[in-house]
Each structure stands twice: as C-alpha cells, then as structure tokens.
Amino acid sequence: MKYCILLSFLLAIIVCKAQNINPLKIGDHVPIIPLDSIYNFNSTSSSLHHFEGKLVVLDFWGIGCGSCIASFPKLELLQKEFGDKIQIILVTNASKSAIDAYFKRMKIKMPNIMMVVSDKILAKYFPYIFVPHSVWINPEGKVVNITNGYNNTSEHLNDILNGKPVNLILKRDVRHKDFQYYSLDSFLFKLEGKQYVYNSSLLKFNNGLPEVRAGVQLDTSKTEITKWYTNTSVLNLYTVAFQMGLPLNSKDYIFNNRIILDSLTYSFLIKPSDPNLFDAWKGKHWYSYFQRVSVTDKDAYQYMQEDLNRYFKKIYGIRAKLVERNVECIILVDKHDVNSKPDYQNTNKEVITWSGEMFLNLMSINYGVVASKTPFLNESRLKKRDSISMIRNINILDEKPLKDKLYKQGFDLIKEKRKIKYLVID
Fold first, then answer.
1. pTM of the entire structure?
2. 3-state class percentages of the chain: helix first, strand second, coil last, to nearest 5
3. Nearest CA-CA partner of 56 in 118, 9, 119, 116
4. CA distance 250 to 253
5. What is the pLDDT of residues 191-229, one digit of tens each?
C-alpha cells in the first residue's frame, strides 16, 4: 500500500512537470507542486503538499533587491515566533553559487530560513515581475493572498491562522511593454495624426500598474514626449513637479526635510508607521499621473504643478507652493590647502575612494530623507568628477569623525543659516 501511495505521488509530480502550468489565483487550491534545490531544510527536495496543515508564505526575492534582503531578519523572527504553525519559504531563480558569491561580496549573512533556489516552477504558478513578491497559502492548501513583502507581519499571519480575512491589495505586475501600451493607448486617448498640444491624466491607485515607477517615452516621430509616474503618493508627485528635474545634490532638491504640511489635518498624506495599515492607505491616497507634451515645450513641470494643484484642491482641499526660508544648514566648505591629503598610514581600517558626485549624493540623501535632519548644502570646490577618501563603513551622519576625515582633505562642515526653498502644502 505504501508503495502504491509513493508511486502515485511520484506520478503526480511527473505530470505536474510535464503539463502546461496555469497561474493560480486567490481562492484556488494548490496542486502537488514539486520543490527542488532546497536549502536550510531536512531534504533537498519536497513539495508544497508536504506543508499542508501549515500557513505557507512563499517570499520571492532576487539578488540585488535591497528591500528583499533587508526583510530576511524579520522573516526569521516570524518563523521563530509561529514555529510549526507556518512555513516561510524564500524563493529565487538565482543559483546557489550566485547567491553565495553575492552574499560573500556584500558581506550578507545567509538567512536561516528554508530556501528554494534556481526556481523555474513556482514562478509559473505565481508569476511576478517585481520583488519582493509574497504568496500566502492557508493550512487547507488554498491561496489566500498574493501581496507585497511588507505585508508579512505578525498581525496579518495571526489573523490568517485564526481564520480571519485579511483584505489586502492584490499584487498584479504588468510587464513594461504591456504597461506602455496600456498607459499610452488606453489612458491617453489615442488620436489620429498625433496632434497633441497638451494632455494629462490623474488616476486613482490601480494595482495593474507598477508601484512607484517613473518613465519617459518619445513617440515614433520624436515630436511628442510622454511622462508617467505610477502608483505613488501625493507628496511624491508634488516633489517631482516642484523640483523640476534637478540633480540629487542640487541646492533646491526637495527631500523629506524640505516638505512642510501647514496643518496637522494633512497628516493623512504621510505613510502610516504601522505596516498593517499601509495597503489601505495607499489604496486611498496613491495616484498615477500621465502627461504628453511637445518635446519643445519647456513648461511641462509647470503644467504638472498646475494639474496637481487643480486636482488635489478638489479632492483634498490642498495646494502646494515653494516658499523660501532662512534656516540652519550643514554646509561643506573649503578649509585649507587643497593639496592636503588624509593620513591613513596608522590605521588598519580599509580606505575607499568615492567620486565627488557619490559623496555629495550620499550626504544629500542621508541628511534629506529624515524629516528631522538639517538640510545639507555644498559650497566647497568639490565637484562631481573629483574624488574623496573615506574609511569604509563610516557613518556620515556622525559629524565629528566625518569632520576629521574631511579636514585632512581640505574641507570642513559648518552650520550656518541659508535661504533655501521648501515645499509647503497648505
């Protein structure tokens, strides 16, 4: 009898591999799906059927996906918290050798979670383009959610185990070529003769479009240009419109610490700190913006500003504008002899060399993304093609050691007031 059961199981796997695979949807029962090339498990091969009775979380990831790798410690904690009630399985199409090489080069600790590598089957049942991509299969073997990785939270998994519905936005990836056709022809009113003067559209959140993506496309005659910003927040759209294509280290680039909400009633524009509330928030307050103009039109960003103010004034009663304010900034300045070089002979720490552009961008980002940080400005001779030396893994937000390293190369950091532009929502 045991022989017959085993034979039936093996035949099912063979059939599964041979047949055409149709993607599974929410509500579908999962068939016997073989799992090969398994690591961090008691066997190198198994099947999803083996985990029936547990909540299975398939977390698809890829080499080079920072948010995927950053989530590994959280997933380890979830597996430890729920124990035998759940089985988290990391899934990637990368080979084990490629993963090992990447983790070694980037000095990343291998997660202690079951992992399927060189995957070719699971991705056919649960197709995706963007990672992280998460699939939840309940203990009865039914697909209950296909979602983003940030929704892998203790609260959500506990609700599933207790039989409670967890209503999340379906993650549905659209291929880039399909997205171009979908957006340009369906949303931008295809016209004969390509006689656009100006055209724009604002759409509510649509889970068929990529999240937080931007793109530019010339038409075949190269006379019209289409720009799109899909599934992103109101503040992100306003930021794009008002910084008008400025480079990252520009004095007037709008970071988080240069956005002012004039009233606490506008706090709904800010991403909720509770990840369990994120899907509901983005479903209500994310938009996509499309614009088509002549390539010779220099006022496209001005049009976008006017469009957003017109649309969001009607929806939320808000408008955005740039206001100049005199505020304290942390400023990179020239200090002394330009030929001065840092002395690293008495240290065993590894020295790295950054381009001037990379250093200025890192400073701008690190001092800009946190709303409480002081704005950073560059008033030194350092240009993007210059170079600057630093100790590897230095914390550039730690001003004292950073000042020491900069001083030895002829630079200093000072704090003084400057007039800079802020994006004000009122």
1. 0.81
2. 35, 25, 40
3. 116
4. 5
5. 444 555 778 889 999 887 888 989 888 877 778 888 999
The structure tokens listed for 381 are 């001779």
Reference 287, options 193, 209, 345, 181; nearest CA is 209
In sequence order, what DSSP letters do the residues of 115-132 get, joined into one string? EE-S-SSHHHHS--SSSS
- With a CB cutoff of 8 Å and minimum separation 6, the contacts of 124 are 21, 23
The pair of three-digit structure tokens given for residue 403, joined into one six-digit string: 């000042």
Contact between residue 27 and residue 143 where contact means Cβ atoms under 8 Å apart = yes
Query: Left, alpha or beta for 64 (phi > 0: left; psi -120 to 50: alpha)?
Result: left
Look at residues 30, 34, 33, 37 and name the one whose alpha carbon lies nearest to residue 55: 30
Under 8 Å between Cβ of 376 and 363: yes
**Which pair of tokens denotes residue 181?**
């056709």
| Residue 211 near residue 231, CB atoms below 8 Å | yes
**Rounded to 10 degrees, what is the CA torsion of 96, 97, 101, 104?**
50
Residue-wise pLDDT tens digits, 349-366: 678 888 999 999 989 988
In the chain the domains, ranked by start, together with CATH numbers, are 22-161 (3.40.30.10), 176-318 (no CATH), 324-425 (no CATH)
Give the DSSP H or E segment for 236. Answer: helix 234-243
**Distance of alpha carbon 44 from alpha carbon 38, whole angstroms:** 4
Alpha-carbon distance values, 173 to 128, 176, 211 (Å): 6, 9, 9
**pLDDT tens-digit readout, 297-351:** 899 999 999 999 999 999 999 999 999 999 999 999 998 655 555 444 445 467 8
Residue indicated by tokens 């068939």: 31
